[in-house]
UniProtKB/TrEMBL annotation:
Record SUPFAM superfamilies: EF-Tu/eEF-1alpha/eIF2-gamma C-terminal domain, P-loop containing nucleoside triphosphate hydrolases, Translation proteins
Name of the gene encoding the protein in the UniProt record: GTPBP2
GO molecular function annotations of the record: alpha-aminoacyl-tRNA binding; GTP binding; GTPase activity; identical protein binding; translation elongation factor activity
Similarity comment: family membership: Belongs to the TRAFAC class translation factor GTPase superfamily. Classic translation factor GTPase family. EF-Tu/EF-1A subfamily.
Upper classification of the organism: Eukaryota, Metazoa, Chordata, Craniata, Vertebrata
Compositional bias of kind Basic residues: 39-49
Domain (Tr-type G) ranges: 169-397
Any coiled-coil regions, as ranges: none
Keyword tRNA processing: no
Name of this protein: GTP-binding protein 2
Domain of life: Eukaryota
Spans annotated as Disordered: 23-63
Length: 601
């Protein structure tokens, strides 16, 4: 991690914004390839009507992944058709229920294109293939290419989507970041309720969890909202569904928004949401009339530090002139190109841009799409919906399969008591598979023990679910298990795992910002996954003190109770303006008896 990311935490950006990295990426009118591949030599390229030719090459087709190239699919034999169906099943499996077909493209990425009749026949064959596997197809865009022909030839990009065989929809988690009063909750209210805001915050009222949030208009807790897309790419939200169960039943793809707090007073809540809920990506909201202000820079720094991919939405464009919006976008571009970010901004101004942005965002961690919209007038809101609909899973199927083969580990993030149900915990399954009736152990308790319990039932997005797989978030009902024995930061694991606990651990850190020097005895709040606890610095190896931007291996000791940590886990610590990041390099495992002695039991 570049230590210069500390500029985002500790001070204002330097004048000039640093050297540009690749410039601002634009894809207007289909002039940029959907996959951003290398440009090759043009063959007999013509310039009809004065329009620039499309790049003649995409990247060569990959064996893995959910993108398939097909030159044409005209009247295949029965044997060939069955082979094509098997191929489609593989691509859908790689994309966890989604695949993208490029028709008119050779396997080496050459954009050949098809005449209108051949394209029509190919799409008809593709539709038959999708019906065979229980999927729907949606044409994303068509582009005209010039290649050795005077007749117009086109390539067509098609989205194939189905409900996975296990009847569990594709779920992407998006953390929503941004300064206070930038319109985060209002935007989520508009997306999930299907009604525009009245300019006074009406759309956000259904998202607030506490009375003081309604009175102040400011989010202080973490809330979850869902937006669905069916197999045809149509939006499914509360405007045509009364309950979350109906949304889940009608959707092939779900976007779960994690609405985080923007006020600096609730920064610890925002950090907890980013570290414990494992979002696939983040949405950074910036108000057009204020620009980068308040905690915006700090939230950007958190996303970079935790390596969470993010895209930017500039809101409230109805409140200011076009020149003000352009000035805010330029300000964002300068910050994104700074050495600490190394991002390539991509301004989205059309539906074609939105499709390109979704594909580029998934393939390159450096691309950062920028949307400009209004939650009151609805201007450009559809572009954001197109982006979210096309956005593929950011983790591949092999990684998920490897996690599913490991022993069960569920992180406890929330604890509730539900009438007639009992104790309920919410969190994320980081590895393995969890089923109704499973016997697990939960801990560590304050005295370092793990307690046995049974999973009575499971719910995902407020609808019943019998099986929970690695990477999925859910709530688990534990029956009459005593809630007083539970706390945030615990884990529920398989008894075979024989979990270890620690009070002392070492981490390799980068001090992002500190006003003076970072020394032994300094106390900080440590965030490691769902763990959040005060720890004291016991030792800084090979150094007496640290200054901003310096690296070292540091030994920490938890002050209150032992925790369950894993080597390699990402770490973030803070205390006032002091902030640092790193990863756990060693844990000193202790027994329950040693934990009781250390903690004074």
């Amino acid at each position: 991690m570049d230590s210069r990311v500390s500029e985002l935490f500790g001070g204002c950006c330097r004048p000039g914004g640093g050297p540009a990295v690749g410039g601002t990426l634009k894809a207007r009118g289909g002039s940029t390839s959907g996959c951003g591949g290398p440009k090759g030599k043009k063959k007999n390229g013509r310039n009809r009507g004065g329009k620039a030719n499309n790049p003649p090459y995409l990247p060569p087709e990959a064996e893995d992944g959910n993108i398939e190239y097909k030159l044409k699919l005209v009247n295949p034999s029965q044997y060939r058709f069955e082979h094509l169906v098997t191929q489609m099943k593989w691509r859908l499996q790689e994309g966890r229920g989604e695949a993208v077909y490029q028709i008119g493209v050779e396997d080496n990425g050459l954009l050949v294109g098809l005449a209108e009749e051949e394209m029509r026949a190919s799409l008809k064959t593709l539709h038959r293939m999708a019906e065979k596997v229980g999927a729907d197809i949606t044409v994303l865009r068509e582009r005209e290419v010039d290649y050795d022909s005077d007749m117009p030839r086109k390539i067509t990009e098609v989205l194939v989507r189905k409900v996975p065989d296990n009847q569990q929809f594709l779920d992407l988690r998006v953390a929503v970041l941004g300064n206070v009063d930038s319109g985060k909750s209002t935007l989520l209210g508009v997306l999930t309720q299907g009604e525009l805001d009245n300019g006074r915050g009406r759309a956000r009222l259904n998202l607030f969890r506490h009375l003081h949030e309604i009175q102040s208009g400011r989010t202080s807790s973490i809330s979850f909202e869902i937006l669905g897309f069916n197999s045809k790419g149509e939006v499914v939200n509360y405007s045509d569904s009364r309950t979350a169960e109906e949304i889940c039943e009608s959707s092939s793809k779900m976007i779960t928004f994690i609405d985080l707090a923007g006020h600096h007073k609730y920064l610890h809540t925002t950090i907890f949401g980013l570290t414990s809920y494992c979002p696939d990506c983040a949405l950074l909201l910036v108000s057009a009339n204020t620009g980068i202000a308040g905690t915006t820079r700090e939230h950007l720094g958190l996303a970079l530090a935790l390596k969470v991919p993010f895209f930017i939405v500039v809101s409230k464009i109805d409140l200011c002139a076009k020149t003000t919006v352009e000035r805010t976008v330029r300000q964002l571009e300068r910050v994104l190109k700074q050495p600490g970010c190394h991002k390539v901004p991509m301004l989205v101004t059309s539906e074609d841009d939105a499709v390109t942005a979704a594909q580029q965002f998934a393939q390159s961690p450096n691309v950062t799409p920028i949307f400009t919209l209004s939650s009151v007038s609805g201007e450009s809101l559809d572009l954001l919906k197109v982006f979210l609909n096309i956005l593929p899973p950011l983790t591949n199927s092999k990684e998920q399969e490897e996690l599913m083969q490991q022993l069960t580990e569920f992180q406890v993030d929330e604890i509730y008591t539900v009438p007639e149900v009992g104790t309920v915990v919410g969190g994320t399954l980081s590895s393995g598979i969890c089923r109704e009736g499973d016997q697990l152990v939960v801990g560590p308790t304050d005295d370092g023990c793990f307690l046995e319990l049974r999973v009575c039932s499971i719910q995902r997005n407020r609808s019943a679910c019998r099986v929970l797989r690695a990477g999925q978030a859910a709530t688990l009902a534990l029956g009459d298990f005593d809630r007083a024995l539970l706390r945030k930061g615990m884990v529920m694991v398989s008894p075979e795992m024989n979990p270890t606990i620690c009070s002392v651990f070492e981490a390799e850190i980068v001090l992002l910002f500190h006003a003076t020097t970072f020394r032994r005895g300094f106390q900080v709040t440590v965030h490691v996954g769902n763990v959040r606890q005060t720890a004291v610095v016991e030792k800084i190896h090979a150094k007496d003190k640290l200054r901003t931007g310096e690296k070292a291996v540091v030994r920490f000791r938890f002050l209150k109770h032992p925790e369950y940590l894993k080597v390699g886990a990402k770490l973030l610590f803070r205390e006032g303006v002091t902030k640092g990041i790193g990863h756990v390099t060693d844990v000193q495992a202790i027994t329950a008896g040693e934990a009781q002695a250390n903690m004074g039991f």
